[in-house]
Amino acid sequence: MIQFELEKTLKRPGKSKERLEKPSFRLEVKFALAKGQFVGILGPSGSGKSTLIRCLAGLEKPDVGFIRLDGFTWFDSHLTINLPPQQRSIGMVFQDYALFPHLSALGNVLYANSDRPKAMEWLDRVGLADHASHLPRELSGGQKQRVALARALAREPELLLLDEPLSALDEELRADLGELILSVQRSTRITALMVTHSRQEIARLCDTVIELKSGKLVSEKSCQKL
Amino acid sequence: MTIDLLPFAVSLQLGLWVTVILAVCMFPFAWIFARSTKAWVPWVESLFSLSLVLPPTVLGFYLLLFFSPLSPLGQFLDNTFGLRLVFTFPGLVLASCIAGMPFMITALRNGIMAIPEHVLEASWTLGKGRLETIWHVVLPNMRPAILAGVITTFAHTLGEFGVVLMIGGSLPGISKVVSIAIFERVEAQDFASAHVYAGILLLTSYVGVFLLNRIQRTQRLRDARRDSV
Q: Edge-to-edge strands of the sheet including A38-42?
């Protein structure tokens, strides 16, 4: 189980009237994910969705709170514990793929797990075994995101963080990749958190959805109710 | 016409030392200048780039005063380490490093800035530390920038005159570099020798600039290909 209770002051994005009146707001989220649960985070731009998963990944530091995975502390402001990302058992998929441009598809997966047969197996699972030697610039957007997914899972993490993984793709590719993410998540039983703007995607892929508004968790419901 | 090859050897040695020292020592600074958002960074960055706009003689004059055996620093270095920096090859290397610093640091900083933040973050989330990320991700992806820094720094050091003359003088085999040899040949009205020295320097500089343009062109084409996917 992953439990977290986080608070962090954030700057309000854009140039709206609201930003002029209140230039900052506070992200305050308390939540727990059961093992194997797939949770979607929904909310308007600047509501703190990405910051939340960046805090879980260790890429940003919350002001106050804790993050625990099965009783093991990743972050605790009172105990001054803050594990760096490399010491947290996470896999992260970024919106812009973030593949290493100088490494092939296989090289990218091997970077996460140096076991070659296992890396090939992951590429095969995302349907890219034939493209193992291709550099990222030789792959399409959808293929790049598949490699990014294989790379994130090759490390066999406890928590998979997906930061708008489908938003850079067109409609058809979104549906295909969404199905792939879902099937991989179901088969590995990995706990996953996905940030997205799309209610439809969340309804299709996730078990539970939490909604953020100006940094506050305003609702939590089962996706069947969406 | 008398062609002495010693100035070429001194210039070549000087260029290699300065390029290697700057490539290694400037990387941490380039990293800070590229990545840090601290308020003091632009102030320090400007200090590092000062020699780009400062007349070399001004820089040479202050370095001469600073490293002189009569200055506190000069006396300290001489008494503690037996190190003299004025009119010696180590002094020439140090002065040329200060003069060539902006060329290396600009190239390295641009190379680091061209690597998206998410790529570094992806490496950290895959279990790699900062040093591993620099070695396996940053350095391979900034090879053209490193090459550009090496070429411009080396070429600039070969052509350096003012700083070299002020701090090194013109001691054969120690501080007499090609640019000073050209100046002395012209002063002696030995234009034929000056032509040979200048011609070789011209050719070397041209090859350097040609290689630099080629690297930048290749990089531009690669970027365009990447953007079009």
A: A81-82, A72-76, A64-69, A2-11, A24-33, A216-222, A208-213, A38-42, A191-195, A159-163, A90-93
For testing contact with chain B, the best of A11, A94, A139, A151 (most B CBs within 10 A): A94
Of A59, A86, A141, the CB nearest to B129: A86
> What amino acid is encoded at A192 in this protein?
A
Q: What residue ranges of chain B have pLDDT lower than 50? A: 229
**CA dist list (Å): B72 to A26, B90, B94, B96:** 54, 18, 18, 22
CA nearest B143 in A: which residue? A102
Write the DSSP symbol of residue B134.
I
Residue A5 structure tokens: 């209770």
Sequence-separated (6 or more) residues with CB below 8 Å from residue A74: A56, A58, A67, A68, A81, A82, A83, A88
Three-point CA angle A167, A169, A173, nearest 5°: 125
Contact A22, A12 (CB under 8 A): yes
Pairs of CB atoms within 8 A across A/B: 69
DSSP A12: P
Contact at CB, B125 and A90, closer than 8 angstroms: yes
Task: Check B128 against A59: CB less than 8 A apart.
Answer: no
Interface pTM, i.e. ipTM? 0.91
Q: Kindly give, in sequence order, each residue whose CB lies less than 8 Å from that of residue A157, ignoring residues fewer than 6 positions away.
A: A89, A90, A91, A190
Report how far residue B209's alpha carbon sits from residue B214's, in angstroms, rounded to the nearest whole number.
9
Residue-wise pLDDT tens digits, A104-129: 999 999 999 999 999 999 999 999 99
Beta carbons within 10 angstroms of residue A129's beta carbon? 14
Location of structure tokens 């928590």: A159
Q: Measured between alpha carbons, how far apart are the two ends of chain B, in Å? A: 59
d(CA A145, CA A155): 16
Return the axis-axis angle of helices B6-35 and B143-159, rounded to nearest 10°.
140
Q: Do A101 and B118 touch (CB under 8 A)?
A: no
Model confidence band, residue A21 (pLDDT cutoffs 50, 70, 90): low
